[in-house]
Amino acid sequence: MKHFFKLFLCALLMTGCKKALDLKPKDTLSDVTFYKTAADFKLAANGLYNSLAGFDFSDTESDIAFNVANAISDGDYLPPDVSSTWTDAYYYIRNANNIIAKGVGLTDPGIKNYIAEARFFRAYNYWQLFRLYGGVPLITKVLDVNDPDLYTSRSTRKETVDFILQDLTDAVADLPLKSGLSASDAGRITKGTAESLKARIALFEGTWQKSRNGNGTDYLNMAITSADHVMSSGEYALFTGKGAQSYRYLFIEEGDDSKESVLDRRYEVNISGQQYPYSVVGTVCYLATRKLADMYLCKDGLPITKSGQFNGYQTVSSEFDNRDPRMTMTLLIPGTAIIEVFNPLVPVVNWPNSPQRNANTGYITYKYLSENVYGNTNNGDNFGFDHHIIRYAEVLMIYAEAQFEKSGVLSDADLDKTINLVRARAGMPALSNAFLTANGLDMRTELRRERNVEFALEGFRYDDIRRWKTAEAEMVQDIKGIKIKGTAWQNIAPYNGAGFQARTDANGFLIVQAASARNFNPDKHYLRPLPSREVALYNGKLLQNPGW
Predict the structure, then answer these.
(1) Model-level pTM greater than 0.85?
(2) What is the tens place of the pLDDT at every residue in 163-202?
(3) Could you give the CA distance from residue 128 to residue 96 in angstroms, rounded to a whole number?
(4) How far is it, in rounded angstroms, from Cα 248 to Cα 504?
(5) 506: how many CB neighbours lie within 10 A of its CB?
(6) Nearest Cα to 401, choosing from 220, 219, 194, 215?
């Protein structure tokens, strides 16, 4: 049974009056009586797991998903007064600092394990800040209201990312292997977790620097080394427990606790449940765009612009024919019967406006839809598959991309131990340098395509196009949906209505949001603005990001 970590506050039993004045609190945990044993440190570390990211719709901040217009993808956001991203991260950083401070000089291996967890979470929360803001104030101790370091200056981008990477390096030494965890501790932070996050961050910064000044080699080397440590550990593998449909089942109940899981936000029925499937296909929706749909290769490994297997858009399902199987495990083929979110006992044959109730792009998301009768409803906390924050497939792709970006080439041997394992799980042909040359394809484009389709609707795209410095081109294009004119859709409600018919491009594709409504200013939008209240509190020490 899954074990979900919760921080329970214990009431201390009062044992009677004492003659001497005893100022130790009797009804709460305090540093005076706490932090004595490994169990104490474990209890404190448990609370840090609440900082792990849960399910969201963050790919709508990019160009491959849409539901309604949002300020990030539109580029019309302003500096916020306050930000929960900022305040929540520093809240957990403070708690991690406290655990680390209490462990100074202690040699108990059990205690050192939880100090290492605290280092991981300090790095994880600084990463949440760094990926959006760049360099931030680095606080490494517990501060009180009179501490002169309370409003310390921003560290540089390099100082911030190097601090994060060093925390992860230090954490690895005292963390257990995944195979060393007891059943009740499944899901806790391991050596592989810290190495994988280190690889992710090093790739992010390596490609960020390379795309701007051509110099990211040190970070790319770090990404390669960390990814290689995870790959050679034997602790992880791709989930293949459902055969040809393994990719589909990885993201629902069957994928929990698999060897592919490196870091999960864990959910448990009636303890800490979630209603994400209901949100995906219910009233909010998480809709793929035309750009994502067209990224999927045909089964011969060629793009739709080059493959003779592509069947075009004439029928409601023809574009799904002969495509990468991940397409139909991520997007639902129109006409397929699924459990309806508003009437869970009666499977229905769907159209893009039913059961999804949101016809914006014309696509229905299949990824994350449960096969549990009540799994796609808003049935309280009665649902609980996990959110995969880091999975082994990402580690493989980090290794491949970092190797290529470092040297400009990627050998067939490296393809076979990374990208081709991911492709094989999906039933796609292997990629080779000869295939690329023969078909006029290039390695970088295909590596990025593979990353986009493997991690579709998992929240990677916004960070990827910023680190590649392609956001200024990608984000300002039309957001498009299904092809309406000249296809069967033009006779199917609601797409046969004048409102939809009028919103098509010259080729008949639905324009969901015109490029004129989207903005990405490369002089400011690669970083988010810092909260204005924080800037004011720092009295000139917290400089706002450029352009804001």
Answers:
(1) yes
(2) 999 999 999 999 999 999 999 999 999 999 999 999 999 9
(3) 15
(4) 32
(5) 6
(6) 220
